[in-house]
TrEMBL record:
Protein name from the UniProt record: DUF2851 family protein
Entry-linked InterPro entries: DUF2851
Pfam family, one: DUF2851
Length: 426
């Protein structure tokens, strides 16, 4: 038994509410169950309930047992002073507010149809399922599933927006600087994303703007701030970069202490931080207005071409300093660019459009035109339900659903879980 199940029972009145009485025998008439609160404080705000002859307006708190009120120290918390009803599965002790007034209690154990409880137990079976509803997911109504996944995608965008909003505050609303930092983070992928974000945020973006056409300066700046020029190699290119970085460090008072050094371990060579940083430098060396290109959704094909960059010179025969190999092209792949569009371009434009008062629909529609990511979570969902649309909007939504709902057993907060509970699970 979990509290989220009791929230479900109360929210949808899935109990014999006509027979509801307080533990003291007073009749309970529910006019409004209140607004479900997902944050701290009472579980439902602004309920309207008649207890006996008195109509009350206030909050509702829900627990498995009445004694949980004291276990959670609500008797000393003023946020719970306005609780008008305590809803519990089992009543084991009378409870009082901090000023010693009794809180009316409703016990649900004998008011719930056993079929509802059995459905809940089936959904939350102790079997080792990948997700709780794995057995039932393939049969979910496609329209209802698609509608819920759209909401999941917007939650995903809101989640990604938090980083962008924080970066805007740090940079004094410098959109170009924020875009550069986001691109850097996602060029670092999961392994080096945070390190690349630190690197991109460790110097004033105006240094990049002043040196748009000077690739060697951009390379020296990024590699130097990443701590990748601290060793000593005899080849001329390395020594040239190191000399350039010393000059830049003195000129702009650069500091790279405290920056997490990018990792090479267990990465495919094409994802080595040296190569990804050089590709990022290539973008800013070849395009002076990356911000304009990224916010121009009318030419998505053109933007993809802008991100199709490849390293040249020294890096055609090196993945790292000091180790030469046969010449090989190292170009950003369409798969990699797709990830950049999904994780940088769309979230960035989502926040930008909202801040500028522009419509959000064009931004979201781009996600429907991009192919879904390839990873184990997304693949598993599509195995369970092959008729789901295969695009970036849905794959991002599925990732959010798995991490924020399925993995946390939040079935009762999920529209799909609730719909299954209300159906005939077998």
């Amino acid at each position: 038994m979990r509290e989220d199940f009791l929230h479900y029972l109360w929210k949808f009145k899935k109990f014999k509410f006509q027979e509801a009485r307080t533990t003291n025998g007073e009749e309970i008439l529910i006019s409004e169950v209140g607004m479900h609160n997902q944050l701290s404080g009472p579980d439902f705000f602004n309920a309207r309930i008649k207890i006996g002859k008195q109509l009350w307006a206030g909050n509702v708190e829900i627990h498995i047992k009445s004694s949980d009120w004291y276990a959670h120290h609500h008797e000393t918390d003023e946020n719970y002073d306005n609780v008008i009803l305590h809803v519990v599965w089992q009543h084991d002790v009378d409870i009082f507010r901090k000023e010693n007034s009794a809180v009316p209690t409703l016990e649900l154990e004998n008011l719930v149809n056993m079929n509802v409880l059995e459905q809940y137990n089936r959904l939350n079976s102790t079997d080792k399922n990948w997700i709780n509803c794995e057995k039932f997911f393939p049969e979910l109504d496609l329209f209802k599933t698609d509608r819920w996944l759209e909401r999941m995608y917007f939650e995903r965008l809101e989640e990604k927006s938090m980083l962008i909003t924080n970066l805007l505050k740090k940079t004094g609303n410098d959109w170009e600087a924020v875009l550069f930092q986001l691109l850097a983070k996602n060029f670092g992928l999961n392994v080096n994303g945070e390190a690349f974000l630190q690197i991109a945020g460790s110097f004033d973006f105006r240094i990049i703007k002043k040196n748009f056409s000077n690739k060697k300066v951009l390379q020296s700046l990024l590699l130097g701030q990443a701590g990748l020029l601290e060793s000593d190699y005899e080849d001329i290119y390395f020594q040239d970069l190191k000399k350039n970085y010393r000059y830049l460090k003195h000129k702009y008072t650069l500091n790279n202490s405290g920056i997490t050094k990018p990792r090479f371990f267990r990465l495919r060579p094409d994802n080595f931080p040296t190569i990804r940083l050089m590709q990022l430098a290539e973008i800013y060396a070849s395009e002076q207005n990356v911000f304009r290109e990224v916010t121009n959704f009318s030419d998505l094909t053109g933007l993809i071409r802008k991100f199709q960059v490849e390293v040249d010179g020294y890096w055609l025969t090196h993945y790292n300093f000091g180790r030469e190999h046969r010449e090989r092209k190292k170009k950003t792949t369409l798969k990699f660019i797709n990830l950049i569009l999904i994780n940088t371009v769309i979230p960035f434009n989502f926040v930008y459009a909202r801040k500028m008062g522009k419509p959000l629909e064009p931004v979201v529609e781009v996600a429907r035109t991009l192919i879904a990511e390839e990873n184990s979570v997304v693949s598993r969902f599509y195995e369970l339900k092959p008729n789901l649309p295969s695009d970036a909007l849905h794959s991002q939504a599925l990732l959010h659903l798995k991490r924020n709902y399925c993995d946390k057993n939040r079935c009762m907060d999920c529209e799909l879980g609730v719909s299954l509970l209300q159906s005939n699970l077998k």
